[in-house]
Amino acid sequence: MHTDLLYDLLEVDRQAGPAELLRTSRAVHQLPYLVLSLLAREEVRMGEPARAELRRARVRTEHYAELAHGLEQSTGVRPIRGLRLAGYYPPGLLRPQGDLELVAPGEAALWQAVVRLVADHPVEEIGVTVFGGRPRHTAVTLNWPAADPLVDPWYRVGLCTAALAGDLAAVPVRPVLVAEDHVECLIALAEEGLRRAFQVRDVVDVLMLAQLPFDPVETAALVAAYRLAPEAAALLDLAAAHVPLGSLAGVRTALEPESAAELRRRETVPAACTGWAGRPRHGVLLRRTVTRDDWDGSRRIPFEHGELLLTPVADYLLPADGATAQARDAAALALHAWDAGR
Fold first, then answer.
1. Could you read off the pLDDT of 182-227 as tens digits, one per residue?
2. Which phi and psi (to 5°) does residue 102 adopt?
3. Helix (H) or strand (E) segment spanning residue 38
4. Source organism's superkingdom (predicted)?
5. I need a labelling partner for 132 at 20 to 30 A (CA). Which of 92, 231, 278, 280 fits?
């Protein structure tokens, strides 16, 4: 891994130098951390502001690793995607990682982890989304300020009871992801293609994974089983234009028939499978609460404008038809009635 690759990926003239490379990288999510760590490894001159930014980035990465380890030991949640991909980067090289993604084995474990995070960090935002039909799944995102809230991205930890959420349409929720670690990383990375276009950082991830031993047929079959053959093929095609695929070249070949079969399958998924019951419903915060230590999950209370979602750390409105002022007012009254009736 050298800066030459990033000059090419970011379409920066090498004659413009490392300062222009870093400036351009700031338009790409979290990429400056990779650029700074790479420039430091290549012993490029940098001043104290750049060194300080790199130090803070390293602290951030180390903190995410410590958080993930501690929460896995205490609650059973485990990291997926970003932190695990970062483990395949060379020592000292920082993977672009804005958040820490964790998968919980169930709702009780999810809320146990959330309670610990709220207790140990100055969490300012807690977002909740419920999705899927039966079983229902829960996703929680927590945010708190970085050391320099104006310059650095805030800390962000996302927890979910499903490993792969799909697109809630043709690609279903897949609650569990089980494979060898590097194969899981490839599958989780391919899943990102359901929500966004692949970009520079994904190419670098593929370069790191390409150094590992992948069995072409077995890997392609696993990717296909998780309904991600088209996304994995697109990811590897993008990467192949910039980096050698190594052991992933055989995987790309084996994905060809699997990708075509998956696209045909998606065309046949009935529209009825994408009904309201499975759509994501985003919680509208009503209030933060004193931690309810005796709760091992959330509670849903129906009322005329949707549902109240009561959790161990906060209460939310899950609106039926949008978070109108009328729905918010009615939710406040319903919450007051619930308080009075306890």
1. 999 999 999 999 999 999 899 999 999 999 999 999 999 999 999 9
2. -130, 145
3. helix 31-41
4. Bacteria
5. 231
Q: Two tokens at 81?
A: 């995607």
Task: Measure the CA–CA gap between 285 and 335, rounded to whole angstroms.
Answer: 12
Residues belonging to the chain:
342
pLDDT in tens, 326-341: 888 888 888 888 888 7
Which tokens belong to 69?
A: 């380890």
Q: For residues 195 and 62, what is the distance between their CA atoms, to the nearest angstrom? A: 28
125-150 burial, b at 16+ Cβ within 10 Å, e below that, comes to ebbbbbbbeeebbbbbbbbbebeeee
Q: How far is CA 264 from the centre of its chain?
A: 28
pTM for the full predicted model: 0.89
Return the structure tokens found at 208.
């790191």
Termini Cα distance of the chain: 60
Pairing between β-strand 100-103 and β-strand 155-160 as defined by DSSP bridges: parallel
Locus of tokens 């729905």: 327
- φ/ψ bin of 132: left (φ > 0), alpha (ψ from -120 to 50), beta (otherwise): left
The H or E element spanning position 308 is strand 306-310
Sheet harboring 314-319: ordered strands across?
A: 284-288, 314-319, 306-310, 299-303
C-alpha angle 288-83-99 in degrees, rounded to nearest 5: 35
| Spatial separation of the C-alpha atoms in residues 300 and 197, rounded to whole Å | 35
Q: Omega of the bond prior to 135 within 30 degrees of 0, cis?
A: yes
Token pair in block for residue 306:
């949707």
